[in-house]
Amino acid sequence: MKTISKFCIIIAASASMLAGCAGGEFVVRERPADVVYERPVAPYPDAVWISGEWVWRGNHYEHERGHWERPSNRVWVEGHWREAPGGYVWVRGHWR
Length: 96
Fold this sequence. Notes:
The chain is an alpha+beta fold. 17% of the residues lie in helices and 35% in strands. The protein has one domain (21-95).
């Protein structure tokens, strides 16, 4: 029984350290600065540009450059920053 109690205390302490992470969303107080770079030329006709995304790695967001993809019968919805309690979270882009 004592082992389980110690385990629960460790889990509770870990959860409090991750207060910026709720439901898979990572909150930052300030949005990272926009990343500006030149879009490469499309590799083939009708290629769809997928803008860069912000990805949570470790304890911060890192920017992944955009890329071209083959056209789809769906529409690409760009990722964006959304206000959240305590700051902002990144909403990933997706096909709709």
